[in-house]
Specification:
single chain; alpha/beta; 3-stranded antiparallel β-sheet; 23% strand; globular
């Protein structure tokens, strides 16, 4: 079986089923919901020539193809039939699994819409988590916690000497192992178990987690893949609570999910309570709140794709549940924790679709906070500059007050623009002209600390 999967992976690459081809299909119906765009993508794929189009119809679009076409594109179908990947009926060759591409990584999982303990090849936050956790230089060991079909672990395997992927669902573990063989990845080890239990006593340089985070209403069918608890954040908080025991010196854990917003229970305080009072630093990057009506409708549509009565009941039950919990919203947030001195910092960020959150951006924010929360002596000796590509725009104030200054950050930055009152703007100007912060005069160190935390200054590399 591993040999047949490796051969399939080589074949799929050889026929050109990769990011460039997939982008042609993705562009079709971009503004439509999944149920509406699928037939249009099938229509276009049927009119494309070449083996990649046939493979896409089989594994991505689930459009039956003639057996001869399938053999020409995929080679001998016998190993795929024996593995349960494809079958033949009166319509032709049909796929029993779903293929997703993460860059040039192939990832198989269950067919969409199965619900329950089905294993999706990728989910909505897969790309965001990979961008946030992928180290800029090679590391020794990485952990893909709650790996599912292991798309994150497969990508991490390119940057780590050894990757461990864990999941409580045996079916997920099966798909993860199949996908490792499909992509000829030999440094990915897959284990079954709950959260950190399979890696007890082990430490890692990177931990990636996108745990289930959807709130489960009373009476709803439980799903290991979907539900994070009654409120939704119970499981993500457990992930954070166990992170410190599994991080190597200089290691970092990245936990992504939708977090409930509750008055009187700020997300950064919740994160700090979970990781504990010890020497663990925590950076919370919080996107704007999502519309609860749209959120509940979209999640119900995933399980009830026909959008019938069951969909309506599930959407209403979910919305009732969130109202009973007293949630004022839900927000995508990326929580990063690492050994340090015990600081916690909440950074409001833009929607990830407008400004993707990358590991490079996280590193920049992290370095700024280590300096801002560290000894004053280190900050006094630092050299700081306005972010490259930023624009400083004066903004008139009423009643003849001194104008404020808006720091319009470069388009790719995840942070929002920064508004500085006149006195702070003046001190920042002096800081940027000085060789060291301490040379910028009285109040410069405190001004530098505030400017670093607000994103108006960067540490000069």
């Amino acid at each position: 079986m591993p040999a047949a999967l490796r051969a399939l992976g080589v074949r799929l690459h050889g026929i050109g089923l990769g990011p460039a081809f997939a982008s042609k299909l993705v562009r079709v119906g971009e503004r439509l919901d999944d149920a509406l765009r699928a037939p249009m993508r099938t229509w276009h794929a049927r009119r494309m020539s070449g083996a990649a189009a046939v493979a896409a119809r089989v594994f991505l679009l689930h459009d039956p193809v003639e057996p001869a076409e399938a053999r020409d594109a995929l080679g001998d179908l016998t190993p795929l039939r024996e593995a349960g990947f494809v079958d033949e009926d009166d319509r032709g060759i049909v796929s029993s699994v779903h293929l997703a591409l993460v860059g040039d990584v192939f990832c198989f999982g269950d067919l969409p819409g199965l619900g329950g303990e089905a294993v999706m090849p990728v989910c909505g936050g897969t790309a965001e988590l990979i961008r946030a956790v992928l180290p800029g230089s090679p590391v020794d060991r990485a952990l893909d916690l709650g790996c599912g079909a292991a798309p994150v672990g497969l990508v991490l395997a390119r940057a780590a000497r050894h990757v461990v992927a864990t999941d409580i669902n045996p079916r997920a573990v099966l798909f993860a192992r199949l996908n490792a063989a499909l992509n000829a990845v030999e440094n990915l080890e897959v284990r079954v178990g709950d959260l950190y239990e399979p890696v007890r006593g082990e430490r890692f340089d990177r931990v990636a987690a996108h745990p289930p985070f959807v709130a489960r209403p009373a009476g709803a069918r439980a799903s290991t893949f979907v539900h994070g608890g009654t409120r939704g954040d119970e499981l993500p908080l457990r992930v954070l609570a166990g992170a410190s025991e599994h991080l190597a010196a200089g290691g970092r854990a990245v936990v992504l999910g939708d977090w409930p917003l509750v008055d009187g229970d700020a997300l950064d305080a919740r994160v700090r309570a979970a990781v504990g009072p010890g020497a663990i630093d925590a950076l919370v990057l919080q996107s704007p709140a999502k519309n609860l009506d749209e959120y509940c409708a979209l999640h119900a549509a995933v399980e009830h794709r026909d959008l019938g009565d069951a969909f309506a009941r599930a959407a209403i039950a979910h919305r009732d549940h969130l109202e009973q919990l007293g949630l004022r919203g839900l927000a995508l947030a990326c929580v990063v924790v690492a050994p340090g001195t015990g600081w916690t910092s909440l950074v409001p960020i833009r929607h990830v679709h407008d400004a993707p959150l990358t590991a490079e951006a996280i590193e920049r924010l992290w370095v700024s906070r280590v300096l801002a929360f560290g000894p004053g002596e280190a900050l006094a000796e630092a050299r700081l500059r306005v972010p490259a590509g930023a624009r400083l725009v004066e903004q008139a104030m009423p009643d003849g007050a001194a104008p404020s200054v808006v720091v319009q950050l470069p388009a790719g930055r995840p942070e929002w623009p920064v508004v500085l009152e006149a006195t702070l703007a003046g001190r920042i100007a002096r800081i940027t002209q000085a060789a060291r912060v301490e040379q910028a005069g009285e109040g410069a160190v405190e001004a530098a600390r505030e400017a670093l935390l607000r994103g108006a200054l960067d540490v000069e590399s």
